[in-house]
Specification:
Layout lengths: L1 H20 L11 H5 L8 H4 L10 E8 L2 H13 L4 E5 L8 E5 L9 H10 L4 E6 L4 E2 L2
Antiparallel strand pairs: 1-3, 1-4, 2-3, 2-5
């Protein structure tokens, strides 16, 4: 048993010396960040640049709808109001669009993202979303 212990001890010492003979890994040389900057001198937040997340013009509005019945439109409006999304019914026809539509207020547009639209599309058949010019839109309110 003593010989087995000494053999294991010698093997451990041999293993230690063998690993010390290998060249240690060198740290990778990293180029300074100033070489990679190029045109962009620093990272700035969108708020700092004055740009808003959706780059849309002020004369464009978001409308949802395309529903064939007025009661479906009222149900959609109630559903949007429950999600704190303000919407007003569009009176008259939108150019190039059939059915009844709701104009989403600019403050509420950020709340109406793709996941909310997909959920609403499951409940309201043929629900569409359009971004159109606001000039020709008359709302019912």
């Amino acid at each position: 048993m003593r010989w087995l212990f000494l053999l294991l001890l010698v093997l451990n010492v041999f293993y230690y010396v063998w690993h010390q003979q290998e060249a240690p890994l060198k740290a990778k040389d990293v180029a300074p960040l100033s070489l990679y900057k190029g045109n962009q001198q620093e990272i700035r937040l969108l708020k700092e640049t004055g740009a808003s997340a959706p780059a849309r013009r002020r004369d464009e509005c978001l409308v949802v709808g395309g529903l064939v019945a007025r009661d479906q439109l009222d149900a959609l409006r109630q559903r949007l109001l429950s999600l704190d999304i303000n919407a007003a019914p569009v009176s008259g026809q939108l150019p190039g669009a059939e059915g009844f539509w709701l104009k989403i207020s600019p403050e509420s547009e950020r709340l109406l993202d793709q996941t909310v639209l997909e959920t609403l599309s499951n409940d309201f058949k043929d629900l569409k979303r359009k971004i159109i010019f606001c000039q020709g839109i008359a709302t019912g309110e």
